[in-house]
Amino acid sequence: MLPLSDHNPSRTTPFINYLLIAANIFMFFWELSLGPAIERDLFLVSFVPARFWAAPFYLPNLIRILISMFLHGGWLHLGGNMLYLWIFGDNIEDRLGHFKYVIFYLLCGLIATMTHAVMNAESRLPSIGASGAIAGVLGAYILLFPKAQVTTLIPIFVFITIREIPAVLVLGLWFVLQLFVGVASIGPQAANAGGVAVFAHIGGFIAGMLLVVVMGGYRRPRQTTTFDRSM
Length: 231
Fold this sequence. Notes:
Layout: E1 2-6, H1 15-33, H2 38-45, H3 49-54, H4 59-68, H5 75-96, H6 98-119, H7 131-144, E2 149-156, E3 159-166, H8 167-185, H9 198-214
Antiparallel strand pairs: 1-2, 2-3
Helix pairs in contact: 1-5, 5-6, 5-7, 6-7, 6-9, 7-8, 7-9, 8-9
């Protein structure tokens, strides 16, 4: 299932969400500008679990956590992540407020990265992408807006259909899939096997559910008063 949009209008302009999307796109074009040196240079600036645990308090290793949250491995990786952030991020920013949303997003990304690092401590493969932080956005969304309708593209064998599906089903199935793949991937052979960092998704999703409550997002926003101007 691929979400295309949600029916959950935001009360405020989500300019932080726009800036996050712009930052990810900017960093991707920076990656493209590296040319033949892209693989070498990305390894230098991206998060690598084994390298991190060798010196966890080494400042460059800490900076790499932040940088890696804005790097992507290709157009599909970038496009998929930005689609999810575009659809679901505005409502979380609306509930938390602009400043808290920045903190929320970065904390989700940090927790997601550290979850991946713990579960893949010996991996020497770079871990890049915004999906851990975005998973936190999804976790917050499923808690705050479970009944929101999401326009979803659903492939059924050779057919494709578009349906309105509650967010709790769309995002719940996504999380269950991450859990299934994560459990299946546990083992010594996973240390240097490439693929999707599912434990970053799992850690980010759970972090988002917890943080949005701690940061006050679960409280309903104050309603604005409307006056009858016909009198």
